[in-house]
Amino acid sequence: MLYEVSTLEECSCSICPRSRLPPRAFKLRAASLRPILDLRDAAAVHAKVMELNSVIIEAQSHTLHAQADSFAQVSRIRELEDRIVQMEDWEREKQRYQLHEVKPGVLAYILKEGMAEGEPAHQLCANCYQHRIKSILQEEHLAVGRVHLLVCNRCGSELIIQGLRQEAQPRRKPRR
Ligand SMILES: [Zn+2]
Question: Does the reported pTM lie above 0.85?
Fold first, then answer.
């Protein structure tokens, strides 16, 4: 492909050196423009690549945020499903118990008749029960004051059945 610079051929200027050159000298081969065109094309391609990189980085950022949101939502759904299962389990479990006065002013939950389901007789901490937690009271005896008490090892509640608790005796701390 040839590019002809026809305007220079018409130049009548007496001092213009190019006007004295034969017309064919102004015919440029496309190959001689190639480096210039290549430079121009390379700059355009580079600009386009930079633009596309920017778009790709932005898209990746959006994708990462969307994935993070999705993971958070899945985690939240699982957490809520677990809570629903726990609430359903507790609603079923609590039906097996009834509030009982172990001694005047001392309350605990005991198994209803016919609801043992193979478990031995036991009593639940009334405090933990109110928080939807099944915590079985353990029986203990303290030599000092001949104290007979029921203890919740979870919240630290002590139900004195018999005897007198000495304040000097260390009280147990809740596990939480
Ligand atoms: Zn308790």
Answer: no
